[in-house]
Design brief:
Length: 102
């Protein structure tokens, strides 16, 4: 009888694939995109719970790895972080706490 992996193992696989995709992006962009696609498919199929930081590592529309300055533009304005994918133009907005200002 074959046991299925628990969600922590799939999350480990997801993190490994994303880290590898980020490392090899400059050497082989096609392979990096493939790793990001596989990681995103694991995320969707296993319904993993990811933190906000992990969710913005891969574009939802084109499934490519998001690296600030290379594949994504990041802007901060009025308590909102805006991520714009340079591959497909998809925009994702997330709120953040600006802290207590006087």
């Amino acid at each position: 009888m074959v046991k299925t992996k628990d969600k922590s193992a799939f999350k480990r696989d997801f993190n490994f694939l994303v880290d590898t995709a980020r490392k090899i992006f400059t050497e082989n962009q096609k392979l990096s995109d493939r790793y990001a696609y596989i990681a995103y498919r694991i995320f969707l199929s296993k319904k993993l719970k990811l933190s906000k930081n992990e969710k913005v590592l891969i574009c939802k529309r084109c499934n490519k790895i998001l690296i600030p300055g290379k594949t994504v533009i990041v802007r901060l304005k009025n308590g909102i972080i805006t991520y714009k994918c340079l591959n497909c133009g998809n925009v994702r907005k997330l709120g953040y706490d600006k802290g207590n200002r006087r």
